[in-house]
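Ligand: ribulose-5-phosphate. Inputs:
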Amino acid sequence: MDQNQLKKATALAALEYIKPNTIVGVGTGSTVNFFIDGLADLDFEIKGAVSSSEASTRRMQEHGIKVFDLNEVTETIPVYVDGADESDSGLNLIKGGGGALTREKIVAACCEQFVCIADESKLVETLGKFPLPIEVIPMAQSLVAQKLKAMGGEPMLREGFTTDNGNIILDIHGLQITTPLAMEKEINNIPGVVTTGIFALHAANILLLGTSEGVKKILPAD
Ligand code: 5RP
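Predicted complex:
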């Protein structure tokens, strides 16, 4: 199977976590796109979804899936389904390859369970080979870059990219993220950082990993 087939198989496996008559939290990316297409084909009704990006909202609306404004939802949202750029064995993630990290973190925080869907290339021993995306308020670009350099990273501006929230992304190369929770908090404390792509405070609860031997269900290691 090629990477796209693995992504699709994994995304469709996540449909098992969706219950009738519920609102679903929906992430962003090419793996999630397969999940959205699967949601549209379910043989039972869902109430709709809350979305983590304009791109996912558009795709769901094209399928006729109702997308709720997150602030209007008062009921429990049982499941958030999203991809990742990297996961470690504790299911701490790097996210934001598609630039939607802030809304992804917000929606993940509103849902009871985070089911991460990824192909096997995304499971790593230590986070950081994938450049860490950080959403930054534009006037803080230099400040945040300096602070990340002091932490051992090499910041690169994502050229020609603006987030759904009107901000920039710095991609930080060369970090070895051995203590994801501590690093997430440290980066969050830099003025001008909107969100770091480390998802440790809101790590995944379940990782569905697409492998050539099938989709494996992985729970966080102690
Ligand atoms: C978007 C994300 C995506 O989940 C991540 O980049 C993985 O994307 P893909 O499923 O296309 O490999 O965090 O901000």
